[in-house]
Amino acid sequence: MRVAIIGTRGYPYVYSGYETFIKELVERLVKKDVEVVVYCHRNLFSKRPKKVNGVKLVYIPTIETKALSQLVHSSLSMIHASFSKADVIFAVNSANGPFGMISRLFGKPTAINVDGLEWLRPKWKGLGAAYFKWASRQATKWYDTIINDADEMRRIYLDLFGRDSEVIAYGGNIKYSTQPGLINEWGLTAHEYYLIVGRFIPDNNWGIMIEGFRKSRTKRKLVIVGDVPYKDDYSANLKKLAEIDDRLVFTGLVTNRDAVAELFHNAYVYMHGHEFGGTNPTMLEALSFGSAIIALDTAFNREVLQNGKYGQFFDKDEESVCSLINDIDNEKDLVLGMKDISREGITDKYNWDCITDQYIQVFQEICKN
Predict the structure, then answer these.
(1) Backbone phi, then psi, for 166, in 5-degree steps?
(2) What Pfam families does UniProt report for this protein, alphabetically (predicted)?
(3) What is residue 229's predicted lDDT score, i.e. its pLDDT?
(4) Are strands 55-60 and 51-52 parallel, antiparallel or unpaired?
C-alpha cells in the first residue's frame, strides 16, 4: 500500500504537534511495509534527500506568506499526489478541507485528520475563523474518511456538520528521568516548582494560570516553558510579571528535548490550560513523563485524564487556580501518588503502535471502497 501525506511542513522537520505526529506515524508505517511519501515545504529544507529513514520525500514550493503558505503548499501537493501512484492520500489540518475536491475529481481515496476547533481560537478572528469553520465543513463533504483524535471532537463534528468520524488519538512515549541535573540551568530544585509548557497564546490560558498562581500562598516557583516567534502584548505583559514576582521563571523556548523531559519529571505539578484542541500532545507528554497534573476543566481534558483518575481540574478563572494550588501545595503524598500512576494513563488508545495499526486499517478500508 502506498500512502501520500500532505498538510505538514515536512519530514523529519519537527516544529509542532502535527510534525511530531507525522514523524511518529510514518516511521512505524514504513516498518510495517507501507510505502510512504511525505510532501515537504521546499523552502524549509536546504538539503533535499529523496528518502530519509525509508520515507520518500517530495519538495513542493509555496508562497512565502503566513496566511497563504500552507494553503498554497497543500493545494499543489494534493494535485501532485492525485497524479501519483499513491493508493490513498492522507491530509492533516481542517484548513485543507476544500482540497478534497481535487482528489475526489481524480478518484483518489482520501482521509483527513481535522484536529481541533480552530475557528474558536482567539488568534483566528473574523475571516480566519470563518474560513476554518467553512473548511472543516468542506472536509466532511469531500474526504472519504474524517479522523478526529478525541471522542468529544467526534460528537462535535456530528452535531455541527452531521458527519461521523473515526476516533484515533494522538500518542505518547513513556519516558523516565535519566539526567535530573539538566534542571540546574534554571536554578531549580526537584518538586519545588510548578510547570507550564506550550505557546504564549491566549487560548492556552497562561494569563489565568499565572495570575492564579501569583495569588496563591505557595513558596514554590512557577516555571513557564515556551514562547512565540513574534512580539505581542499578551506575551510581553506576562513576562513583565517576573519583575514583581520572583517566583516566576520564564525559560523561553527550550530546544533540548531531554531538558524539557526533565522539567516535566521533576516538577511538583504540571498545569495545563489548553482549551480548544482535542487530544493535546503536551498533556500526553505530561502523562508519559510521570507528572502530577492539574488542568482546565474541559471535555477534552477530562477525556484524556479519565474524569479525574489521572489529574485534578480548575475552572477558567484565577480564583479557581489559586484555590486548587493552595489545596494541593501541602499535599505532597497526594502529589507523589498522582505521579506514581500518571504513566498508566498512556493506555492502548494513546500508544503509537496501536495508533499506527488503526491508521493502517482506515487506509485499507478506504482503498477497498
Answers:
(1) -80, 145
(2) DUF1972, Glycos_transf_1
(3) 62
(4) antiparallel
* Dist CA 269 CA 253 (whole Å): 20
Strand 166-167: give its sheet, edge to edge: 51-52, 55-60, 35-41, 2-6, 88-92, 110-113, 145-148, 166-167
Which residues, including other chains, have CB under 8 Å from residue 154's CB and lie 6 or more apart?
148, 164, 165, 167
Domain 2-171+351-368, CATH homologous superfamily name and number: Glycogen Phosphorylase B; (3.40.50.2000)
Express each pLDDT in 235-279 by its tens digit.
888 888 888 999 999 998 888 889 999 999 999 999 999 988 789
Alpha-carbon gap, residue 24 to 21, rounded angstroms: 5
2-171+351-368 and 180-348 in the same fold: yes
pLDDT at position 126 is: 77
The phi-psi region of residue 170 (left if phi > 0; otherwise alpha if psi is between -120 and 50; otherwise beta) is beta
- pLDDT given at position 232: 75
Q: What is the pTM of this model?
A: 0.91
* CB contact at 8 A, 208 and 318: yes
- Which residues lie closer than 8 Å to 147 by C-beta, 6 or more apart? 111, 112, 113, 114, 165, 166, 167, 168, 362
State the DSSP code for 19. Answer: H
Q: Which residues of the chain have pLDDT under 50?
A: none
pLDDT score recorded for residue 257: 87
Task: Sort 176 into a burial class: Cβ within 10 Å, 0-12 / 13-18 / 19+.
Answer: exposed
Residue 175: predicted pLDDT: 95
Distance in angstroms (rounded) separating the CA atoms of residues 303 and 288: 16
Cell 516557583 locates to 221
What burial letters (b/e) apply to 10-37, b meaning 16+ CB within 10 Å? bbbbbeebbbbbbbbbbbbbbeeebbbb
Domain boundaries, the chain: 2-171+351-368, 180-348
**CATH number, span 180-348:** 3.40.50.2000
